[in-house]
TrEMBL record:
Protein's organism: Prevotella lacticifex
Domain of life: Bacteria
PROSITE patterns given in the database record: FMN_HYDROXY_ACID_DH_2
Lineage: Bacteria, Pseudomonadati, Bacteroidota, Bacteroidia, Bacteroidales
Keywords: Flavoprotein, FMN, Oxidoreductase
One GO MF term attached to the UniProt entry: oxidoreductase activity
Record-linked PANTHER family: 2-HYDROXYACID OXIDASE 1, S -2-HYDROXY-ACID OXIDASE-RELATED
UniProt protein name: FMN-dependent dehydrogenase
Obligatory cofactor(s): FMN
Amino acid sequence: MEEKIKSPWPGPAGLIPVTSGRADDANVINRHYLDHLMVEMRVIDSVEPDLTTEILGRKFSSPIMMPAFSHLNKVGKDGRKPMQAYAKAAKEMNLLNWVGMEPDSEYAAIADVGAPTVRIIKPFADHDIIRKQIAFAEAHGAFAVGIDVDHIAGRDGHFDIVDGQPLATVTSCDLKRYAESTPLPFIAKGVLSVADAVKAKDAGCKAIVVSHHHGRIPFGVPPTFILPDIKRALAGSGVAVFVDCGIDSGYDAYKALALGADAVAVGRGILSPLLKEGKDGVVKKVRRMNEQLKEMMMYTGIADTYSFDPTVIHHS
Ligand SMILES: Cc1cc2nc3c(=O)[nH]c(=O)nc-3n(C[C@H](O)[C@H](O)[C@H](O)COP(=O)(O)O)c2cc1C
């Protein structure tokens, strides 16, 4: 029997994923890996860095993005809407906002906040739902759309069912059809191999998120471990490569960016400030992360977000 793990976050048990601490937990492997990446120092001639960056053709104030969260409005106390709160933080700070599985009405309310927003749709077995949600996102001014292709298996070895909706594999053909069906950039979220990265590129995805979706796959390799291989495989393709999982500080963000990420997304790292203080908590958290990121860039002689260099990173 699976032992119960106490959630550090408020809300109904099971709604917000918790890192178990067990050996098979990819979150644990990821944290260990990130913490064992060391950074050499290149300070002579260093300057104060500029964090502004271009993501899929638009300028943002930082390569740190909001996470593709979902369901959080159900845990918002006193009618608070955490999904809108972090979208407001994105708008205030000029960051790229992401939204995960939300019904159209909730998606519209989040999009109405006015931050450039990526809608990540579940790999529903019913392709009609996917097509309708893509069209709805287009009509509501989405910045990009995509599918979290990694959310297929449930813990029982069958296709997962979320909110009563059966999920299914996204084939290369499906991905191509979805990418071709929309004028928006299409994103495959949950890529953790060169094989899937190349399939996403061949299907016409404009970006991938190298991620194991907070440890969906047991014993999953850390995204930053597989990232350099994926970057090599996609070199010259123009496909943007984003990374998430375990990005909790500007130092974590720096390591992923140095290893080749075009941008990174925070995840559960913003949950506590978000649920406790709403938008202001998220702004504070990301400001601190930006400071840490700039600090590391100064120590390594990286002047801007286009000049990261993987040779500063060493493995202990
Ligand atoms: C409450 C919650 C809801 C999430 N919902 C979605 C979702 O609907 N779609 C999706 O692609 N990812 C979803 N994610 C995963 C995040 O987008 C991201 O991949 C993950 O949290 C990164 O790992 P980290 O939390 O260790 O940073 C969710 C994460 C959390 C914590």
